[in-house]
Amino acid sequence: MNFTPLILFASLLLPLYASAEEHQNSNANGGDTIVFTTLGRSRYEFDVFALSTTRPPSISGEIRITDGESVNFNGYFPSPSPALISLLPDATLIQPGDSSPLHLIYVTERNGTSSIYYDLLHGGDPDSKSKRRSMLEAPSRVQIPLLTNADHRSGNTVNSFKDKPSLSGEFLVYVSTHENSGEPRTSWTAVYSTELRTGLTRRLTPSGIADFSPALSPSGNWTAVASYGERGWTGEVEELSTDIYVFSTRNGTRRVKVVEHGGWPCWVDESTLYFHRRSDDGWVSVFRAILPQSGSLSTESVNIQRVTPPGVHAFTPATSPNNHNFIAVATRRPGSDYRHVELFDLRRSEFTELTRLVAPGSHHLNPFLSPDRSRVGYHSCRGQANGRRSPLLFLENIQTTTSDLSLFRIDGSFPSFSPAGDRIAYVRMPGVYVVKPDGSGRREVYDGMAFSTAWDPVRPGRVYTSSGPTFATERTEVDIISIDVDAVDKSSSVRRLTTNGKNNAFPWPSPDGKLIVFRSGRSGHKNLYLMDAEKGETGGLWKLTEGAWTDTMCSWSPDGEWIAFASDRESPGSGSYELFLIHPNGTGLRKLIQSGTGGRTNHPIFSPDSKSIVFTSDYAGISAEPISNPHHYQPYGDIFTVKLDGSNLRRLTHNSYEDGTPAWAPRFINPSDVVLRKKNDSSCAFEDCHWLNKNPPLKGQKISC
Ligand SMILES: *[C@@H]1O[C@H](CO)[C@@H](O)[C@H](O)[C@H]1NC(C)=O
Ligand SMILES: *[C@@H]1O[C@H](CO)[C@@H](O)[C@H](O)[C@H]1NC(C)=O
Ligand SMILES: *[C@@H]1O[C@H](CO)[C@@H](O)[C@H](O)[C@H]1NC(C)=O
Ligand SMILES: *[C@@H]1O[C@H](CO)[C@@H](O)[C@H](O)[C@H]1NC(C)=O
Ligand SMILES: *[C@@H]1O[C@H](CO)[C@@H](O)[C@H](O)[C@H]1NC(C)=O
Question: Which range is the signal sequence, renumbered to this chain (predicted)?
Answer without folding.
Answer: 1-20
